[in-house]
Amino acid sequence: MEEYIIYYWPLAGRAEYLRIILEEKGVKYKQINDRDQIVSKVLQNGIGGFPVLFPPVLCKGDFHLGQAPVASRFLAKEFDLLPEAEEDQWLAENVHTTIHDFVAEGRLAFHGIHPTGPYLEQKEGTQRYIDNFVDNRIHRWLKYFEAVLKRNNGGQGFLFGNKLTYVDLALATSLRACEASYGPAYQAADYCPLIKAHRARIEARPNIAAYFKSDRFIPFSDNSMM
């Protein structure tokens, strides 16, 4: 098997959605988080081949993909993490895209003044956007994911059918990111017990639990859902 390589900054961020799949499946991979290499290989397209725009970039031999949601689905197909039924595959991708929309909105609240600027340089000005996300938005996302999970076996198993999929991994990862950045709001969200229990089941899986204890694991920051 050709080695998988992930180019990403030295933080959890969007690359975590790729790592968690590879870790669950016990697949070895290499991480390149040296800033100079990311600039030369990714931002300046020194990687060659099909152009990429931003990290994370997933490589397998000469093939590479940007965009974490797309690369996640590629890995899902590689490692039998798609739902069985074709209709469920499309529904799963619908939920998967929504998960990444949730993360993007949660991140943007911490960068309400300057979307690409550091949080600490706009901390006071962006607080109103953080408060708005907590007061008016976070519950809409979490209740949606709760409803999706509940429709399958009463929310006691997986999101689709009776098998683990990449969307289960992505949802658990996004909830971990949410708690890191919006801890009090997440912990007070008593309206979504099913997805919290689902997250706990995913995180208790042997390979994932071992990953959290390894030196490969990087916790999410507390100011970006990244």
From TrEMBL:
Gene3D superfamilies tied to this protein: 1.20.1050.10, Glutaredoxin
Top-level lineage group: Eukaryota
GO terms classed as biological process: glutathione metabolic process
InterPro entries, alphabetized: Glutathione-S-Trfase_C-like, Glutathione-S-Trfase_C_sf, Glutathione_S-Trfase_N, GST_C, GST_superfamily, Thioredoxin-like_sf
A single MF term (Gene Ontology): glutathione transferase activity
PROSITE patterns hit by this protein: GST_CTER, GST_NTER
Domain named GST N-terminal: residues: 2-83
Annotated SUPFAM superfamilies: GST C-terminal domain-like, Thioredoxin-like
Domain GST C-terminal as annotated: residue spans: 80-220
Protein name: Glutathione S-transferase
Source species: Pinctada imbricata (Atlantic pearl-oyster)
